[in-house]
Amino acid sequence: MLLNRIVLVGAWAAAAALMAWATPRQRVRDALVVFMFKQVITWPLGLLVVQYGFLAYPVREFPQATFASFSFEYFIYPATCVAFTLRFPERRGVWAKLGWYAFFPTWMTALEFAIERYTDLVRYIHWSWHWTWLTLLITFHMTRMFYCWFIEKGAVAPAVKGGTSS
């Protein structure tokens, strides 16, 4: 039980640190847009995969309220998506972009697989690591496309250097 809590607290700390590293002060609003959009995707999907018996979360933060993992679906995945989106290699070549898309789902899937194997935080029932990798890839791409559309539409005003403009 102690190992589960240590891993959970470590994952929260790592996700928060990653999000803080990825978010320059002038892009906090962008980070919030990405974070909340990813939550809109992961929370319902997390509830569905648990409801249909694909995954189980034996150790949960709110066992009376939900069978899904609040930490993973509502904070850790969205926080990581902030780093993925805000640090995306926009001005680099296609191989750098494809590598970025492959890197994030891969390391997150590897960590989830280790967590599934050595803790009680997640249990694969009718699930496998490749489903995790694929859903992460798809949801990261959806979030990035939404963010690009949102920025293009001017919903998030660019930061003005030097304070207010006259």
From TrEMBL:
InterPro entries xref list: CBO0543-like
Top-rank lineage group of the source organism: Bacteria
Keywords on record: Membrane, Transmembrane, Transmembrane helix
Membrane-spanning segments: 32-55, 67-86, 98-115, 127-147
Name of the protein this chain belongs to: Uncharacterized protein
